[in-house]
Amino acid sequence: MDKLIEVEAGGVGNEMPTRTFRLRHHLADHPLFKLDRLARLAASLPADQIEFNGPVLPNQDPNLTPSNGLTPEETVRRIEECRSWMVIKNAESDPEYKALLDACLDQVAEQTGGVMGGALKRQAFIFVTSPGNVTPFHMDPEYNFLLQIRGQKRMSLFDYRDRAIVSEEALELYPGKHRNLPYRDEFEAGATQQHLDPGDAIFVPLFDPHWVQNGPEVSVSFSITWHTKESLRLVKLSYVNAGLRRLGLPQAPAGTHKALDAIKVAAYDLLRPIYDAVRKVAGDRQKAIAFVFGKTAPAN
Length: 300
Known about the structure:
The structure is a single chain. By secondary structure, this protein is of the alpha+beta class. Helix 5 crosses helix 6 and helix 6 crosses helix 7. Helices cover 30% and strands 22% of the residues. The protein folds into two domains: 223 residues, Sandwich (Jelly Rolls); 63 residues, no CATH class. The termini are far apart.
């Protein structure tokens, strides 16, 4: 198989990297990322796998995100002039994109001796963005390779451990929480800024906040994400800490009390199936959270 994505030899040690680094890929001319193919993909997927909106700011209030008044297919076909941002979620539900996702991650795993690449919860996301548009400040609870396919973009990336940028509480996860985070212009002094052209790729570590400014052309990016056992453990801890904090119990960061962390993870593994079952019966996320934690969920 032709090499699709390349990690610099010696660029990854014996442990999962905790800092961003750059890679190269060879997907810029791949037919799966032509706008016509992406429009057909968007038209074929359920509504909950497509998110799109009009122009936004880095500190966008998710409750005030503007609509562009178009369908997903129209958004892709008119992306040049409609001033929009779109993400196609779980593109791996299409067999062609799943094969590409798996090939990329398998190649990364091979090049890093199995340290990176992952085999757990592999997902693919495709971003289609109008010239000059913005992806607001947010964080993602998974490891991510962002591959720039078409156009240019600049990413401002921050260390999630920097409490001058984001609080422990803001990073914690709970069902229904929106990914956007509070942003101020002065944060940029602490940013790692990366400019991405077609063929460039970047590793985005787990939980690291970031926002993206698109360049003067249409942008298409391919985001391939995955988990390890350790990242899933940290995500579970985040959910439990958020639930306990909402009960009025302050929580220490993950790793501060390892024995307590293990108890929290075990509690998550016990309670999550109960939450899923209650939500399925009640058909409502708020009621399921109230049943498990005793309080209703905050609004997105």
